From TrEMBL, chains A, B:
EC number: 4.1.3.4
Coiled-coil parts of chain: none
SUPFAM superfamilies: Aldolase
Family: Belongs to the HMG-CoA lyase family.
Reactions accelerated catalytically: (3S)-3-hydroxy-3-methylglutaryl-CoA = acetoacetate + acetyl-CoA
Domain Pyruvate carboxyltransferase: 7-274
Organism annotation: Malikia granosa
Pathway membership: Metabolic intermediate metabolism; (S)-3-hydroxy-3-methylglutaryl-CoA degradation; acetoacetate from (S)-3-hydroxy-3-methylglutaryl-CoA: step 1/1
Name of the protein in question: hydroxymethylglutaryl-CoA lyase
Pfam families in the cross-refs: HMGL-like
Length: 301, 301
């Protein structure tokens, strides 16, 4: 079995994680989190989004957060932009990459952004063009690539279709997201395979939620296909809005432990990462969602 | 990639899980748990142990529990026997299988049972002989096959040695246990490989703790080697005595979800299993340790 020698992680905690928090955190806490994450060795961080504060009040401080972090050379700061207006707002903050998104499920697309999958891609086309013209990289988040809270299982053909639409509008790389964490290894491999009809494996990343505890086995299955880009959230930030009380994003600590245990380099200092997770968990006033953090903290005593 | 068409699970919750509970549960609750587990489709259940109640008061009701369960044809009831005295006590309760144990770590063997690995196997030899003579199957639990709380990483050669000793005293099949849950896929595969120097793959089972959240990825790695016997604990019963507050055994629900998701048959009804887990979690007055149970219960609303 061949495994990649190194893996690159996109830390999505500050955006994907914190956007689900009922009580928005102060910008200073978010800035401190990003600082700690980059100090721990993360080289890609999804910092914030430029969605209307009416819909996502948690990210209303996007300018403040982007202005507050000390930008480091070699670190890629990405932001979510839902439309041209959001992109224009983001532009002032000089993100290295913008994230556009689409679902592999028609029902999810309708419920989430009130339009069809095809329409959502048409709407993103000018955003992608504008970003590329401004020299900003573009990543596409493909949600519900395995299962959907409304439709149930999603066939690989739908993933292939979405990946094709992403490619057609100019998206440079894509995330295969198991948004509700229902995936298991063979299903996740089929979704990745479908994506690879349009993107080479180096441009495909795995974004697995741990709702059913399957994220790391799905990661192993993806690694075995040659995937070497993954997304995760420190302390497992971000619950699952489709199953209250359940886990959301896989914890970065758990993913790093897996990778290091297999001899795969990440450039991340696990202890510093656990400290970053403790910092944000304390700020939120709740225990970490990372099993590795719990075990290591218990061992520290 | 070839995967087994079916997997056989040994449910260890009633013994390995409950023996770590500070407050012993009433025998009636344990009996009800075993009943529910077999009703959910479990065909191997580790019911209790015959260790001195001075050391393990939680299992002092072994006779009562074994007498109380309605034995079903086709279900294998196993019990842990630490020595000849324990075996003789167990005999009256007609177990289908006894479990003897040994560590791949010298330090763990000394701290846990106060003798060397070789001595522990010598002590078990007459127990194994007596069991086989009585027509009772014998399984050997090999602990610390990946890591040890005292010695750290355990090289595969130590696992090979322990498996050889188990084989020499007549143990019919063995569990490769990652007792403290520190293993990752390649390390676990090396421990299994070492075991296979003495046992064919059909006689090797995986027993992975989820302390670091790695149990299911280790399971996937073991499945890929042809292992089709696994052990787990409903609701993730049994914490980790070496890292207070951390998780112990992998939850049976999480394992079953993985297997079913991959099209691998287990004969288990996941919903009934979740109910069994809810029953015992309620009896213990704490939330389930199973992510699948949490997600499914959240979905039930």
């Amino acid at each position: 079995m061949n495994y990649p020698a190194q893996v690159r992680l996109v830390e999505v905690g500050p955006r994907d994680g914190l956007q689900n928090e009922k009580q928005p955190l102060p910008a200073a806490v978010k800035i401190e989190l990003v600082q700690r994450l980059q100090a721990a060795g993360l080289r890609e961080i999804e910092v914030t989004s430029y969605v209307s504060p009416k819909w996502v009040p948690q990210m209303a401080d996007n300018h403040q957060v982007m202005a507050g972090i000390e930008r480091r050379t070699g670190v890629r700061y990405s932001v979510l932009t839902p439309n041209l207006k959001g992109f224009e707002a983001a532009l002032a903050d000089r993100p290295d990459e913008i994230v556009v998104f689409g679902a592999a499920s028609e029902a999810f697309s309708q419920k989430n952004i009130n339009c069809s999958i095809a329409e959502s891609m048409e709407r993103f086309a000018p955003v992608v063009q504008a970003a590329l013209a401004a020299g900003i990289a573009v990543r596409g988040a493909m949600s519900c690539t395995v299962g959907c809270p409304y439709e149930g299982e999603i066939p690989p053909e739908r993933v292939e279709m979405l990946a094709g639409l992403m490619k057609a509008i100019g998206v440079q790389r894509v995330d295969v997201a198991d948004t509700i964490g229902v995936g298991t290894p063979l299903k996740v491999q089929r979704a990745i395979e479908a994506t690879c009809k349009h993107y080479e494996i180096d441009r495909v990343s795995g974004h697995f939620h741990d709702t059913y505890g399957q994220a790391l086995s799905n990661t192993l299955a993806a690694l075995q296909m040659g995937v070497w880009n993954f997304q995760s959230s420190v302390a497992g930030l971000g619950g699952c809005p489709y199953a209250k009380g359940a886990t959301g994003n896989v914890a970065t600590e758990d993913l790093v432990y897996l990778l290091h245990g297999m001899g795969i380099a990440t450039g991340i200092d696990l202890d510093a990462l656990v400290d970053a997770g403790t910092f944000i968990s304390d700020a939120l006033g709740r225990p970490t969602g990372s099993r590795v953090a719990r075990a290591l903290l218990a061992r520290r005593g």
